[in-house]
Amino acid sequence: MSNPQYHHEKPVLYSYFRSSCAWRVRTVLNWKGIDYEIKPVNLVKEEQKAPEYSKLNPLKEVPTLIIDGLVLTQSLAIIEYLEETRPEKPVLPKEPGKRALVRSLVLAIASDTQPVTNLRILNYLGDDRKEEWTKYWMSYIFEGIEKQLKEVADDYCVGNEVTLADICLVPQVFNANRFKVDLTPFPIIQRISDKLLELEAFKKAHPFRQIDCPSELKSKNNIT
Q1: Domain spanning 96-205 has what CATH number?
Q2: Residue 186 to residues 26, 120, 148, 166, 181, Cα–Cα distance (Å)
Q3: Which fold has domain 4-89?
Q4: Which pTM does this prediction carry?
Q5: CB neighbourhood size of 54 (10 A)
Q6: For residue range 179-208, what is the model confidence (pLDDT) as tens digits?
């Protein structure tokens, strides 16, 4: 139910620059041309655990989107809401078979891969195991995704239209590169990710272009 307390002139996204989940929502907001404000939440400094923020998001994570008087959490739920209330430039195909293919790829990333390689898990594992763990699980899932893409991909993950599968894929490829996962066995994944990053909505959502990205990272990657 809408709450007048959360009515703002434009949507407010609580985000961390390197969060895969927040990145997905940033991309969809950009893709649909929705103007929004970002409020950074530094996960490394554990700002997500602050009492004020944890009232908005009891799971103490990002993203959180305040829109239409609602406080929405969980990236896929947020994106489904945006898809239903702002249907322009859809990210889910109309044809049920294609939509199922997109959701299959989305869940392979958002349910099978990202949760076991996120910051909470890696911190729990400790420095000794995190690199080995991340490389194993990302490579394991990417192997299956690559095989799926051989059957359904064209310019993008499912045919020639940008879909939610593409929106989820790009952050996961970024994370794989960050942890030095060998992407040589996954040429389709790499090709699609590179092509997507040429699109303005994806460029604008990139971690290195966020207001909370450390200046040294921006400089290192030639972002001004």
Answers
A1: 1.20.1050.10
A2: 26, 27, 11, 15, 11
A3: Glutaredoxin (3.40.30)
A4: 0.91
A5: 13
A6: 899 999 999 999 999 999 999 999 999 999
